[in-house]
TrEMBL record, chain A:
Name listed for the protein in its UniProt record: Glycerol 3-phosphate dehydrogenase (Quinone) subunit B
Key words, A-Z: Flavoprotein, FMN, Oxidoreductase
Disordered: annotated segments: 57-84
Superkingdom of the source species: Archaea
Pfam families the record matches: FAD_binding_2 (PF00890)
GO molecular function terms listed in the Swiss-Prot or TrEMBL record: glycerol-3-phosphate dehydrogenase (quinone) activity
GO cellular component, one term: glycerol-3-phosphate dehydrogenase (FAD) complex
Record-linked InterPro entries: FAD-dep_OxRdtase_2_FAD-bd (IPR003953), FAD-oxidoreductase_2 (IPR050315), FAD/NAD-bd_sf (IPR036188), G3P_DH_GlpB_su (IPR009158)
Domain FAD-dependent oxidoreductase 2 FAD-binding, first and last residues per copy: 6-441
TrEMBL record, chain B:
Entry keyword Iron: yes
Domain 4Fe-4S ferredoxin-type: 94-125, 141-174
Short name of any one Pfam family annotated for the protein: CCG
SUPFAM superfamilies: alpha-helical ferredoxin (SSF46548)
GO biological process terms, semicolon-separated: anaerobic respiration
Name listed for the protein in its UniProt record: Glycerol 3-phosphate dehydrogenase (Quinone) subunit C
InterPro entries: 4Fe4S_Fe-S-bd (IPR017896), 4Fe4S_Fe_S_CS (IPR017900), Cys_rich_dom (IPR004017), G3P_DH_GlpC_su (IPR017753), Helical_ferredxn (IPR009051)
GO MF entries: 4 iron, 4 sulfur cluster binding; metal ion binding; oxidoreductase activity
One cellular-component annotation, GO: membrane
Gene3D superfamilies for this protein: Alpha-helical ferredoxin (1.10.1060.10)
Biased composition (Basic and acidic residues): 1-29
Length: 465, 503
């Protein structure tokens, strides 16, 4: 059989890539298979580690009896999460015991972030400190994050530089003035104004963000004016939009744009705009799909190539076969109708969570469909959720439970397969949306799973040598 | 002929056999497995404007395959049992049932971001609109299909981008088919031009009878200008030359297969281009597979249908598919897997065939089809065979992965196969689309869009070390050559050179 590797990583998101590189750096032969284009293109491009500590106990005891969701009867009550946290590492001890950070330890998070820093080079900032940076995000909130793209750097909310937020009428989901008002209401330490400018009007109303990015990237003419110059001209009249309580005006120090300022030549686009406007220029991450996510995807896949990892996208893993020793011998990849075995000495499952479809659920239960790994869950599905939408939702922490080497455990708490490791959102125990910890969990579990998978092979081959 | 008759499969098959396979019909072969499901009406049912007949019974109900299952099994329900009642069944039969797929779309817009046309043409509303949104619109009232469907290049990148497995390209193919069938003026220059472009095989088969004359004619000063003025085929491109000997004629002349091996057989689906234009690719395929001990079969075949899907000519595509499926099923019965050297051909046989047509054995054809290099990488120790290879002189390639290779998980196969071979430098020029998408870039009104999409690839090719291009797709190769002036090779050609094969 020709499709064989030392380590096979299933899943092409942040966790899968991290695991693949971590394993490859141990000197083993690594292959990565991903069903769909990487979920990185849906990601904001911000790398969070731990931003909030949500309460795990309700403010008053949970109500007994049948579910009341949507009927407004005596809803469950939960306190607000603690945060934003200044230092993610300092808060790890206060997470629930089954949280991956507690199981793997703070060093796993440090190792994961260090590997990420190495892969992205100077495209990302934030590695100089353990502390979180605060960045404005799409919608007008401020997000604690461990690493952030250079393109977003001038937007740090801890800076007191006066800020203009720019939006476009045709970009309906992004209202710059509401955005600015929300930032002000959140108590940011800088004066802020929002302005809607006429630039994107030259495009069709439903033009895609890739169209804007492409026009700026190649500086294509918009009604005869090169795109970057046209954008600067549209923004220039708003440089004095900030009016203080006494009616005084202030020239803005920095300008935030929706994150479509170019793709391959994004640095060039930002610096030309900054020169023309005489102010710093930054991007604000938007909802999916996002250019910062696409740029990160490009960068990380290039890194995979450079590390000698083989990868392919487009076909799902649909099952496994085990050998007599109870190890996984190979997985089956459905290549458009034909199930092809891919064998390896060790496997990393990084297929994603409920959203990414690495976990599947219906009325009878929640499953991990590729390897059929054990997913702990209450048998009564009314215990999967609580009535407060923003409360501690048990389903948010669903996923496989690993040991401290990243090996998924079965219902009895025993290692399910000695040569299988799990990483990313398929791992349970974290409520990544409320904690703002999705990237950090992917990096910590990814680096652990990749390193341990490579080590497992060495252990297995040692006696033979 | 009424609409009802067309849905009767026996008469359908008789009617559609246009005679050029007369005498070539396969009797059930000993050892042919019982393949496929029972015959059902095609998913694409040609609409000649006849009113729907309400009492057609089971045969008329929609097929629900293509990876999409209705809650009740849709058409497979023997009768409408109230306990298994599913709203899917209230839709008129005959049309593709994609409701489950449309419902899976949660509008994340990843498809739009992956669309190479939307990135350069903001008038194109993108795959999300063309697929699930338009499908829903049509369920409510019978809205016309938006004419922008003809701007979709059928690169199928949206399929791969969708995290929710919405069958986007299937929806686009269906919408385009309906648009052409019901809304396009059959005497319009655009229709005639598209019909000619998508039936490349028909014209190539005539031209290749007199290749020198055909090449002379297409190279005459003003020939392409004339094509642009009369047909709307762009005058910017040069027509690809016809080979002086087709692959099939070479194959006959050499006496067919030189290796006989009942245990290792492959049926070569050469497609039109490597038959009429680049037989060197087909010859390389034969040399390589015979080197690994395969008996190569070359069954009779027609166009894979790719250019027809892209132009909404589903009737033409179905007619060709019926021949292909019949011949390829016979080859499978003889123990062969099907090998294509064009990634759009393999994509069509694997994915579009079972998504769009319900022909006896079509699932088996899909399940047995592979791309040439892919097959060797699965079933042979290709790395081992290449371990000691060394080229006579160092050669450097700028490799572009076709979109249709990407969707099959093959985007890295050439780079991974050759990067460790001594004397070969191969560089991936990135994940952008070449922009030509088969017949798309040949259309006068699409030429500019096509070149804008290709710009990134041209730029990356020029930055790459190699000044020979490489790709599996013949039309990507045309675009690469057109944009850079590079000579373009197929991976099979390099493989034939790198393996220790006696010439």
């Amino acid at each position: 059989m020709a499709i064989d590797s030392d380590v096979l990583v299933v899943g092409g998101g942040l966790a899968g890539i991290t695991a693949a590189v971590a394993a490859a750096r141990e000197g083993v032969d690594v292959r990565l298979v991903s069903y769909k284009a990487s979920t990185l293109r849906q990601a904001s491009g911000l790398i969070d580690a731990l931003g909030y500590l949500p309460p795990t106990e309700p403010a008053k005891p949970l109500r007994d009896g049948p579910p009341t969701a949507g009927r407004g009867i005596d809803p469950d009550e939960w306190d607000d999460p603690e945060g934003p946290l200044a230092d993610p590492f300092a808060a790890i001890d206060r997470l629930p015991e089954e949280h991956p950070y507690r199981i793997l330890g703070a060093d796993a998070l440090r190792d994961g972030l260090a590997l990420f820093d190495d892969l992205v080079g100077d495209a990302y900032l934030g590695s100089h400190t353990d502390r979180n940076a605060l960045l404005p995000t799409f919608g007008g909130s401020v997000k604690p994050t461990a690493r952030y793209p250079r393109a977003a750097a001038a937007g740090l909310a801890s800076d007191d530089a006066s800020t203009l937020i720019v939006g476009f009428r045709s970009l309906t989901e992004y209202d710059a003035r509401t955005f600015a008002d929300r930032l002000a209401a959140a108590g940011v330490p800088f004066p802020v104004a929002g302005a809607e400018v006429e630039f994107a009007e030259a495009f069709q109303t439903d033009a895609k963000i890739t169209r804007f990015a492409g026009a700026l990237d190649l500086n294509q003419p918009i009604d005869g004016t090169p795109a970057r110059e046209a954008l600067a001209k549209a923004v220039a009249p708003h440089l004095h939009d900030i009016v203080d309580a006494d009616g005084g005006v202030e020239r803005v120090d920095r300008i935030g744009f929706p994150s479509f300022l170019g793709d391959e030549h994004a640095d060039e686009v930002r610096s030309e705009l900054a020169d023309r406007l005489g102010a710093d220029v930054f991007e604000i991450p938007m909802g999916p799909p996002s250019l910062p996510g696409l740029r990160l995807e490009d960068r990380l896949y290039k890194a995979l190539d450079a590390e000698g990892v083989r990868f392919e996208t487009g076909n799902p893993v649909v099952g496994i076969e085990t050998n007599d020793a109870g190890l996984v011998d190979h997985v089956l990849v459905d290549r458009k109708g034909r199930e092809i075995p891919y064998s390896a000495d060790a496997f990393v499952v990084a297929t994603g969570g409920l959203v990414g479809k690495g976990l599947d659920s219906d009325r009878t239960g929640v499953r991990e469909p590729a390897f059929d790994l054990h997913v702990p869950q209450p048998t009564n599905r009314y215990e999967w959720f609580v009535d407060d939408v923003f409360g501690e939702q048990p389903y948010a922490r669903f996923g496989v439970r690993p040991n401290d080497r990243g090996q998924p455990l079965d219902a009895d708490g025993e290692v399910q397969y000695e040569n299988v490791f799990a990483a990313g959102s398929v791992v349970g125990g974290a409520d990544v949306a409320r904690e703002k910890s999705a990237s950090g969990v992917s990096l910590a579990t990814g680096v652990t799973a990749g390193t341990e998978a490579a080590a497992a092979i060495e252990r297995a081959t040692e006696p033979a040598q | 002929m009424t609409g009802h008759d067309e849905r009767d499969t026996t008469t359908d098959a008789d009617r559609i056999d246009d005679g050029d396979n007369a005498g070539d019909v396969h009797e059930p072969h000993p050892g042919v497995p019982t393949l496929g499901r029972d015959e059902q009406p095609s998913i694409f049912v040609p609409d000649d404007g006849e009113p729907e007949v309400a009492d057609g019974g089971d045969e008329r109900s929609a097929a629900t395959d293509g990876g999409v299952k209705s809650a009740t099994g849709g058409s497979d329900s023997a009768e409408l049992d109230p306990t298994t009642y599913d709203p899917v069944d209230v839709f008129p039969g005959g049309d593709l049932d994609l409701r489950d797929g449309a419902d899976s779309c949660y509008k994340c817009t990843s498809c739009d971001t992956s669309c190479p046309v939307a990135a350069v043409d903001d008038e194109f509303p993108g795959p999300k609109f063309q697929g699930p949104e338009q499908w829903r619109l049509k369920r409510k009232d019978d809205h016309d299909i938006d004419a922008s469907i003809t701007s979709c290049s059928n690169c199928m990148r949206c399929d791969d981008a969708c995290p929710s497995s919405v069958p986007l390209s299937q929806m686009h193919n269906e919408a385009r088919g309906q648009f052409v069938e019901r809304q396009m003026e059959k005497l319009s220059r655009e229709y005639v031009r598209n019909r000619i472009l998508s039936n490349y095989r028909f014209f190539a088969s005539i031209a290749s009878k007199v290749p020198r004359l055909a090449n002379f004619a297409t190279n005459l000063p003003g020939a392409m200008w004339l094509a642009e003025k009369t047909l709307g085929v762009t005058g910017e491109r040069e027509f690809p030359p016809f080979a002086t000997q087709t692959f099939r004629s070479w194959w006959r002349e050499r006496g067919g297969a030189q290796v006989e091996n009942p245990d290792k057989r492959v049926a070569y689906f050469h497609g039109c281009y490597s038959n009429y234009n680049t037989p060197e690719v087909g010859k390389a395929m034969v040399r390589v597979f015979e080197h690994f001990g395969y008996e190569v079969l070359v069954p009779p075949q027609k166009c894979s249908g790719t250019p027809m899907f892209a132009n909404g000519m589903l009737k033409d595509a179905r007619r060709h598919a019926e021949t292909n499926v019949e011949e390829l099923v016979a080859a499978i019965g003889e123990g062969a897997d099907i090998i294509a050297s064009c990634t759009s051909c393999s994509m069509s046989l694997r994915q579009e065939y079972p998504e769009l047509f319900d022909i006896h054995g079509i699932e088996d054809v899909s399940n047995h089809t592979f791309e040439a290099l892919e097959y060797l990488r699965i079933y042979e120790d290709l790395e081992g065979a290449l371990a000691d290879s060394e080229l006579d002189e160092e050669r450097a390639f700028a490799y572009h992965a076709p979109c249709h290779a990407r969707n099959q998980g093959l985007e890295r196969q050439a780079v991974e196969t050759f990067r460790d071979v001594d004397g070969v430098v191969i560089e991936d020029v990135g994940d952008s689309c070449s922009g030509i998408s088969g017949t798309y870039g040949w259309k006068k009104e699409k030429y500019e869009t096509s070149m804008k999409i290709g710009e990134e690839m041209f730029e990356h090719m020029e930055h790459a070390e190699g000044d020979v291009g490489m790709t599996e797709c013949p039309t990507c190769a045309m675009q690469m050559e057109h944009g850079t002036g590079y000579e373009i090779e197929h991976p099979l050609q390099l493989l034939a050179d790198a393996l220790p094969i006696d010439a």
